[in-house]
Specification:
The protein has 135 residues and is largely without helices or strands. 12% of the residues lie in helices and 7% in strands. It has two domains: 1-63, no CATH class; 74-135, no CATH class. The strands form two sheets. It has a three-stranded antiparallel β-sheet, with no helix packed on it. Strands 4-5 form a two-stranded parallel ribbon.
Length: 135
């Protein structure tokens, strides 16, 4: 993965939706006018992970490994914060008490690829896309 150090301090960059078949993001998001020469490599060994602020400008090259690459996006918010675009988003309470109830309770999967879990995933994915996905 390549990142531009300190780019998170610039705030949220406007993303452009593309139809690039090589871009695997839901909306083919990309950024314009990126200072590519400022990017640095964040090489990882198998089994390692990197963590960065969501506004950090980052990109990855094609995965040439035999194993798939996995990305995970975690967002921590206070319970009083709510989603305005679409109701019924889900969340796990990391700590404390939720006195507002803005989110449906996330259901933890009981086994890998269970049919009920996969069906729920489809419902949640549709809600996510309805709210604009990652754009």
């Amino acid at each position: 993965m390549m990142i531009i150090p300190g780019s998170h301090r610039l705030g949220r960059c406007e993303q452009v939706v593309s139809e690039d078949p090589d871009n695997i993001l839901y909306h083919g998001q990309t950024l314009k006018d990126v200072a590519v020469d400022a990017a640095v490599a964040c090489a990882l060994q198998p089994g390692q992970a990197s963590f960065h602020h969501g506004w950090t400008v980052h990109a990855s090259m094609p995965n040439r490994a035999d194993e798939r690459r996995i990305g995970l996006n975690v967002q921590y918010i206070a319970p009083h914060v709510r989603q305005l675009k679409t109701p019924h988003f889900t969340a796990l309470l990391a700590r404390g008490h939720d006195a507002w109830g803005h989110y449906d309770r996330e259901v933890v999967a009981q086994s890998d690829l269970a049919p009920d879990t996969m069906a729920r995933r489809e419902i949640l994915q549709a809600r996510y896309m309805e709210a604009g996905g990652a754009v």
